[in-house]
Write a structure and sequence with these properties.
It is a single chain. This protein is of the alpha+beta class. It has one domain. Strands 1-2-3-4 form a four-stranded antiparallel beta sheet, with helices on one face. Strand 3 and strand 4 form a beta hairpin. It is rod-shaped, with a radius of gyration of 23 Å. The N and C termini lie far apart (about 80 Å).
């Protein structure tokens, strides 16, 4: 009888610890998924803008929230800003915002496009 009570007590301590560990793993997995998604979106948008060419990039801020996948946590938004700091250079800043359990996380990516081409 004593062994049974001890085993019940041990199980009573182990099960809550395991459930807390599993919950933490789920949170970390979802955060990693959202970060990977936002990185992929930013890379794709960067390549799309670079491929369009220097002359087709007009300074301003543009939203592409409708291009975000449903897997990214809501609320979410995405935009890119094109600036022309000097002749022959265009700066592109991509911002992706999404909900991260307790606050909004903002990922910012920057790239430069030259009039002479990407590699110049």
């Amino acid at each position: 009888m004593l062994e049974l009570l001890i085993s019940i007590a041990v199980i009573g301590l182990v099960i809550p610890a395991l459930s807390l560990g599993v919950k933490s793993l789920i949170v970390l997995n979802n955060r990693a998924r959202d970060l990977a998604i936002s990185n992929t979106i930013a890379e794709n948008k960067t390549e799309e803008l670079r491929s369009s060419g220097f002359n087709s990039l007009t300074p301003g801020t543009y939203s592409f929230t409708n291009e975000l996948p449903t897997e990214l946590s809501n609320p979410k938004s995405a935009s890119y800003t094109i600036t022309n700091p000097s002749a022959g250079i265009i700066n592109i800043t991509i911002n992706i915002n999404y909900w991260d359990y307790s606050h909004t996380r903002t990922q910012t990516y920057k790239t430069i496009v030259s009039e002479l081409g990407v590699g110049q």
